[in-house]
Design goal:
Number of helices: 2
Largest sheet: none
Radius of gyration: 19 Å
Number of domains: 1
Structural class: mainly alpha
Helix content: over 70%
Number of strands: 0
Length: about 70
C-alpha cells in the first residue's frame, strides 16, 4: 500500500506553537460538536461515508475492467 503523507501547507510559515494550538482547538471543537449529536447520527454518518467509498471503489473497478478488456 502507498506510504501515507501528511500535508503541512503552513509548516515554516506559522510558528509551531500556533499550529499546535489550532490543532488542539480543532480537536476540542470536533469533540464538542460530537457531544451535541446523538450516537446514532455519528454511526449513521460513518456508515454512509463507508458506503460512498465502496461506491467509488466499484466505479474504479469497473473502469479498470473496461480498460483491461480493451487491451
Amino acid at each position: 500500500m502507498a506510504e501515507k503523507t501528511t500535508r503541512k501547507p503552513f509548516e515554516g510559515k506559522i510558528p509551531e506553537e500556533v499550529r499546535a494550538h489550532f490543532k488542539a482547538a480543532r480537536a476540542e471543537m470536533r469533540e464538542s460538536v460530537k457531544g451535541l449529536l446523538p450516537p446514532e447520527f455519528i454511526e449513521h454518518r460513518r456508515n454512509a461515508r463507508k458506503e460512498m467509498l465502496l461506491a467509488f471503489r466499484s466505479v474504479i473497478d469497473s473502469a479498470l475492467k473496461h480498460m483491461e478488456e480493451k487491451e
